[in-house]
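Fold it.
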Amino acid sequence: MYETLYEKIVDGLVNDGYIVLDNALDASLAKELLREAKSRNDFKKAGISTKGSRDENRRRDKICWLDEAGSKAQQEYLEFANGLREHINRALFMGIKRYEAHFAKYEAGDFYEKHLDAFKNSKNRVVTTVFYLNDSWSEADGGELVIYDKDDRKLRELLPLQNRLVVFLSEAFPHEVLPAKKERYSIAGWFRVDEVFV
């Protein structure tokens, strides 16, 4: 179903280390995931690093983890991601063992300062995905994802438009979320090479 999309993503990772895809998945899936995210009341303040500490000078978003036993829309999104995991492993031999993802909610004024998704002294996260859910978003609404190279040069500044998918190598691209001026929703996910800890 997604073979052509998977191939584009792998080509982007090989050629540039990242790729931005508009109208990536079925439009109805993005809409249903947005409806679900807006209806949830179990968002929690997100932490930073493996210790889960909270520093509101660095990060102000709230998160809610996706679950394979969750809604049909969550299951469909995770099915797409697991297919991508298998395709990346076949094409690039990355040894990815699992995928984890959460809804991210930014309220007006929320941001996330520049960071890498691969934790210091940890090689667990190897590929990052961000899938945007927002409808009717404009430049005036802020909340852009800004991607940098390792020399701190800005590569892209992206509006969080509905059904836009961004995929990049977790260790290679510092990035930040600029302050949003209204509620902003996405799904952030990571392909990991570590085993599941129970």
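The chain has one domain: 3-47+57-192.
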